[in-house]
Structures are given as C-alpha cells and as structure tokens.
Amino acid sequence: METYKQLQKEFDKKVEELQNICPHKRKQWMDKWWAIGHSAGYQVQVCLRCNKIVKEKPTAEERKKEFEKHIKEMQKGCRKHIKQTDI
Fold this sequence. Notes:
The protein is an alpha+beta fold. Helix content is 51%, strand content 28%. It has one domain (24-85). A hairpin with a 5-residue loop joins strand 2 (38-47) and strand 3. It is elongated and about 65 Å long.
C-alpha cells in the first residue's frame, strides 16, 4: 500500500512531465490567490490543459520594484513623523 507522500510525489512528477510537453495553446487570465479568499493582487495566465502559470501581470520583478517603492514612501513618512514629534 502506498502512502500519501509517495502518491503525491508520483502525481507531482507526472504533472511536471505534462507541463513540459504541453504546447500551452488554451490559456486564460485569472486572479492569483495565495490562499482561499486572499487575492495576491495580480493576474496570471494559466494553461487550461496542464494548469501551468505561463505569464504574470505584472511580473514578479515589477511587483518587487513597486513594493520597494512603497517601503521607501512609508519610511519617508515615518522619518517625517519622527522629526515632527522629536521637537
């Protein structure tokens, strides 16, 4: 009798094989979710045959730049607030 982990490993290997040979002709844009009910805030293009993410919109690099920009804006606001309250 096979264990769950053995079956999962076999399944993952077969999915990877399918995704490697799939031509990804039928695709659809959809929202990316990191958990049920929790949107990641961007869209991905998924192959409807093998379920592989073919493209992301915006790309991971663009999201990283936007996040870094957001952090810098927050830090500016924090520094401004600290300077005003230190008086």
